[in-house]
Design a protein that fits this description.
With 300 residues, this protein is of the alpha+beta class. Helices cover 33% and strands 21% of the residues. The chain is built from eight helices and twelve strands. Helix 4 packs across helix 7. The radius of gyration is 19 Å and the shape is globular. The N terminus is likely disordered.
């Protein structure tokens, strides 16, 4: 199936058809992500925790080890394995296949131990309504190789378009990175102004949204929306943004408080790259206009 799918520019990705695999893979990425969180020095807005799209999957990038040297962990969606690489030259790999999260977690810890990597991992997943500890999770146990590959293929295309979109901004901007907590690929622009702290905001959200920003991204359908979509939101939400309209596909979703472009529209389009890039440009323009950003100095 992979050979046939390679001819699709933006492959089909229906969350309903691979939700079980997606939820299991989400837990796998959280386990590895918590390793990155534990090993990487703190950066603003938690930029020390995401993964990055690679030519084979998703990588932590090189993480410094307390005893010296570096460790990189990569989800390889071509070989369907989790690759561990130390700067000492030591390598290991875990197969990605149908297994419960508890089994994966145990094998993962054994692999780290075999590489002489000692790290404390918080066993409770984050950003979930009903989290199950990794070592007790026998519920999530699916892995469809073709679905995982298709998900990564969409991420590779989105990653390229997000980087093209980023090139026209002169202000502070994040890398294009994959957040394993929310399970989405995102890029965020800032105008340089501090944001007012919202009542009830926890320390994680306070750091993430300490400054006014406009963020765009892609998520595969988890989190309640039920289908893959590109999104754009402003934080804090400026007055009048919900009434804004944009040309072309996509619209403001009142329930979520952000612009959405369903992935199905991208997949069906004869010019999917153009559709996504126009959505990013148009939603940024609408949000920046509503928030009164100084675009003369921020935009190229």
């Amino acid at each position: 199936m992979i050979e046939a799918a390679e001819h699709e520019t933006w492959p089909a990705l229906d969350w309903r058809q691979w939700a079980e695999t997606g939820d299991t893979l989400h837990m796998f990425t959280q386990i590895v992500g918590k390793t990155r969180l534990a090993l990487s020095p703190m950066q603003n807005h938690w930029w020390n925790v995401p993964f990055y799209v690679t030519a084979r999957g998703l990588s932590t990038s090189a993480m410094p080890l307390p005893q010296g040297g570096l460790l990189e962990i990569e989800f390889d969606f071509i070989a369907h394995e989790l690759a561990f690489r130390r700067s000492s030259g030591d390598t290991k790999a875990l197969p990605l296949h149908a297994q419960c999260v508890a089994e994966f977690y145990s094998a993962y810890l054994d692999t780290l131990k075999s590489l002489s990597v000692a790290v404390h991992i918080d066993r409770l997943p984050v950003e979930l309504k009903d989290p199950i500890r990794f070592d007790r999770d026998t519920v999530h146990r699916s892995y469809d190789r073709d679905a995982a590959w298709r998900f990564w293929q969409v991420l590779t295309h989105a990653n390229t378009i997000f980087k093209r979109f980023s090139g026209n901004f002169l202000g502070k901007i994040s890398p294009v990175h994959f957040f394993w907590g929310s399970f989405d690929l995102a890029v965020t622009r800032f105008n340089g102004r501090r944001a007012t702290v919202r009542p009830g905001t926890d320390s994680i959200q306070s750091e993430a949204y300490s400054h006014e920003c406009i963020s765009a991204g892609f998520w595969p359908g988890n989190g309640g929306y039920g289908q893959a979509a590109f999104y754009c939101y402003a934080a804090p939400v400026p007055d009048g943004l919900s009434a804004a309209t944009i040309p072309g596909p996509g619209a403001f979703n009142d329930d979520l408080g952000e612009f959405l472009l369903d992935y199905s529209e991208v997949h069906r389009s004869s010019e999917p790259d153009v559709v996504v890039l126009d959505f990013l440009k148009n939603t940024y323009a609408a949000a920046a206009r509503a928030a009164k950003w100084d675009r003369a100095n921020l935009d190229r």
